[in-house]
Amino acid sequence: FTRKxxxxxxxxxxxxxxxxxxxxxxxxxxxxSERRPFDALPLPVPVQPFSKRTKHSQQQRPGGR
Length: 65
Hints:
mainly alpha
């Protein structure tokens, strides 16, 4: 508590960890084997020919610079 008697502000990490814990948990009645359908989906990998730095430097600015 502070000198004025008010409770100190808690860090946000504990609250976030608590929320993440419940997000990861399965609802009651679900089996672990039912959790697998997401593993079968291949994630599309975005293809970028240039990195962001080169893409930025290749843009032509109006004004001849």
